[in-house]
# Entry
Amino acid sequence: MKSGWNKLILGLAMLPLWAILAPTTEAQEAGKYYRTQRGNVHFLGDVVVGGTLTATNEIVTTDSLTFGDLATTDDLDVGDDAHVAGDFDTTGTTTLRGTINGKAELRTLKFSYFDVDAAASQNAAEWGIDTADVGGAFKQIPVPVGGSIIGIAVYSNAETTSGTLTADATVNGTATGLQAGLNSVDDKQTSYTTQAIDADTVAAGARVGVKVTTTSTFTPTTADVVVTVLMEY
# Structure
């Protein structure tokens, strides 16, 4: 009997610690993860990390990933949503087929264009970059970095009582199609439109401006209007 116990203890001593402590295959299935002695870790369910996750090999999951901070020197492949509340740093390839939710700061440039006593019957009129330059020569602003137009907004100091005003963001004088406008029904005094990054790209050195169109019935023509264009880079 003592000899049998000695053999059992000797056999356990020869096993790696993870093999002794690891759950059975059935328990691994129920817990939705696989564990290997070396190499990759494959998760079948959610992975929630409250702190920093550092990986020198692949991280593969068919479900969602939630991190405080994430750093990996290899590929990251997520089949569902990825939630990163902190820093995200990878030197490999990142493939995400779900939603990306992060708190990274977006760098932007804002450009404003004005018209005092905005007239009716304007047809793709380029507005100036300050209130002293309405209709002047400086109608487009050159940018020192590349990026993309992500938003446009219009504000009037008086409610629109009839007709419409439509502002279109431009790049090098060409309308992008990203518009915001005023009317006498719902957007009487302010309006804005946003779009995804890279929908309308802007190269370094390009010029950002606006073109504004008003109907012949637009009033009040004493309204002062500003159009703001937002660019990320």
Summary: The radius of gyration is 29 Å. Residues 108-232 form a domain with the Jelly Rolls fold (CATH 2.60.120).
